[in-house]
Amino acid sequence: MTENALKCKFNGGSIPFEYTIDKEQRFQLDPAAAPVVLEVFTLYSKGTSMQQIVNRLNERGVKSLRGNKITLNIVDYMLHNRRYIGEYGYRDVVTPGGIPAIVPEDLFERVRERIMKNKKAPARHKAEDDYVLTTKLHCGKCGAFMVGESGTSRTMTVHRYYKCVNTKKKKLCDKKPVKKDWIENLVVEQTLRAIMDDSVVDQIVDAVMDLQTRESTELPLLRKQLAETERAIHNMLDAIQQGVLTSSTKRRLDELEQTKSALEISILQEEIQRPPLTREQIAFWICRFRETDVTSREQRQRLVDSFVNSVYLYDDRLIVTFNYKDGARTVSLNDIQGSDLTVLGAPRKCQAPDEKKV
Ligand SMILES: [Zn+2]
Ligand 1 centroid to 140 CA: how many Å? Predict the structure, then answer.
């Protein structure tokens, strides 16, 4: 069995429903089921909840391996399964690229981040208690996350703050909690300062233009799945010509034809969804953040999610790392009395590029 595992061969047990096992006991994509997996990952990465995905699949009549309804457990297991990025695993044998991948690695990574975010921050669902720096803010002393907490004082005033998780649990760290509004305003202010800088906007535009020249990671996989489906249809037609026609062959052929047209549509959509953006359009998108309404929690969250990579809070300084190359800022806390968002002045208006292209 270990020998089989080292060759990335199927080692018995139940066959995962997105794969079929060929004569040499190797995993091959199941052209009908593999697109469902890719769809689940894509939906989740774009913000659809696990429950909504479950409902959607059941409405369409997608069935599990054992022919049952799709459950939350199945979708949850799917979204964690490294097999879909092509990782073969049997006991302690793990071979990256050992089996055909269904999901591109960057999509898998985005899904993993979203799962972590939802796990670490159940409070995010409570609109009122939303802490915009959750999963971004780290303790400068021990590196752990600082998470939102609130407490009510004897005078019944609610105090909101961020606290290092290590001080919460085992007293591993002595970082003092900081006020929610103070730290959030500070980060929002620094982020706005960064994007008010035209040279920063130019840098981001350059990076996006460069990214656009690279090909989509999902397209090659979709094209591969399409080729495999076409081959399967071809084989099936051969079998029919040779007179091997049963009702199950017919049903299978119908399924394959359906998969084929679904894949063709996905490929088309993927191609349409990526019209190249012009420099002006990208600059306009960034520029619009200059008009962020700092009193709106939603807009603050969007600004932080779009630009801030991480924030490390030390006793005497704050390091904000942005999502673009070389984008880090150190702010000495000694120079800051309080954070005052009015110092930024009126935001500049941005020139919209050709309307019909936006
Ligand atoms: Zn700490």
Answer: 7
The CA 313 to ligand 1 mean position distance, Å, reads 9
Per-residue pLDDT reduced to its tens digit, 4-34: 777 777 777 666 667 777 777 777 777 777 7
Measuring CA to CA, which residue among 6, 42, 10, 2 is closest to residue 26?
10
CB of 117 closer than 8 Å to CB of 111: no
> Above 90 in pLDDT, residue 186?
yes
Q: Any idea what DSSP says for residue 276?
A: P
Cα(108) to ligand 1 centroid in Å equals 29
Q: How far is the CA of 280 from the centre of ligand 1 (A)?
A: 43
CB-based burial, 274-303: b 16+ in 10 Å, e otherwise: eeebeebbbbbbbbebbebebeeeebbbeb
Contact 62, 262 (CB under 8 A): no
Report the distance separating Cα 329 and Cα 320, nearest Å: 5
CA 275 to chain centre: 21
53 alpha carbon to ligand 1 midpoint, in Å?
Answer: 37
What does R_g of the chain's alpha carbons equal in angstroms? 25
Cα(312) to ligand 1 centroid in Å equals 10
Helices vs strands, H then E, count in the chain: 12, 11
Beta-bridge partner residues of 145? 138
| Ligand 1 centroid – CA 106 distance (Å) | 30
CATH architecture of 2-120: Alpha-Beta Complex (3.90)
Q: What is the pLDDT of residues 37-49, one digit of tens each?
A: 888 998 898 888 8
- Full strand arrangement of the beta sheet holding 328-332: 137-139, 308-313, 317-322, 328-332
Which has the closest alpha carbon to 31: 218, 220, 227? 227
Between the CA of 156 and the centroid of ligand 1 the distance, in Å, is: 28
